[in-house]
Amino acid sequence: MRRRFRSATAATAVAALASLTACTPQAPLVDDPFNKIIETATGTMPLPPEARYEPADSRPARLPGDVVPEPTPAPGIGPAQDRIPEIVERGRIIIGVDQSLNLLGFRDATTGELAGFEVALAQEIARDIFGDPDAVEFRYVDSTERIDALRTGRVDAIVRTMSVTPDRESSVDFSAPYLTARAGILVPAAEQDSGPAGDGDGGDDAAPISTAEDLNGRRVCVAADSTPEEIVRSEAPGAELLLVRSWSDCLVALQQHQADAVVSDDTILAGINDQDPATTIVRRGLSTENYAVGVAQDNAGLASQVNLTMERIRSDGTWQQLYDTWLGAFLPGGQQPSAPYREAER
């Protein structure tokens, strides 16, 4: 009897323990760092690093207005040693670029090398200084770091979608422009037919996006501190901005349904469209800007040297070849912009 009593008691204890286990969360057997991630998961994808939502009307727009570029030094004449002796003596030029802007400056997954229109332009600048397009050291520069990188001497020049604005002209010097960009809108192609899905303010039955006004009530991804951010604040104050560090983050946000549209320069949107053919550019011409090579303020010698390259690639057809190779299929009809020159300082 005692043995049977013990068995019954043990069975009762096991049953009670099983019931308690079913009702009470159990502590992990080991201190696994993934336990906390699993416990706090909500089922939604995290935003890109440092990204945040902000109402477009949270502050007034700061648009640059009509920009008349300041005259830039005339193309150099004679040896580069006369204009940029420190760079020539170093044996290479250091240029800040992006490594995630498809078609402009990106790391080719098949070769591991940097490629794109802006990377090729930087190599042409090196070619005219050293006779060698590979005599260039590339350094990745975030869009918010460009001016500081020039001020501190981290780079000699910036070739990274740097548009000419009055504010920037007060801080850096620019070469002649090398590319004209027109801001536009990119959206998922499927949602143009069925209306945007998800839990955005636009709702499931919202009309397709085709104009800036259609962005009101939608989540719009833009790079922080960019002209497209100011365009959305001005043209669609009812939009919800998703402010990110880089334009590649906007593609991820669009694919994860964290944004309904991307507003950026058409040159950048072309790269996103190339990466994801399920997207489409529905509008261009929200603004027009020129990209130029940025150099440190009062460095007329380097600006003059870069402008020598600008005129050489214009006259020998190199610019058109680079454009057709990287951007022509998406933005046909591109032409190299011109710029007023002033006398180069010796």
Automatic annotation (TrEMBL):
One GO BP annotation of this record: amino acid transport
Endpoints of the signal sequence: 1-27
Solute-binding protein family 3/N-terminal domain ranges (all copies): 92-330
Segments of this protein annotated with the region Disordered: 190-210
Family matches, as Pfam families: SBP_bac_3
Gene3D superfamilies: Periplasmic binding protein-like II
Entry keyword annotation includes Cell inner membrane: no
Keywords recorded for this protein, A-Z: Signal, Transport
CDD domains in alphabetical order: PBP2_GluB (cd13690)
Family: Belongs to the bacterial solute-binding protein 3 family.
Protein known as: Glutamate ABC transporter substrate-binding protein
Species lineage: Bacteria, Bacillati, Actinomycetota, Actinomycetes, Mycobacteriales
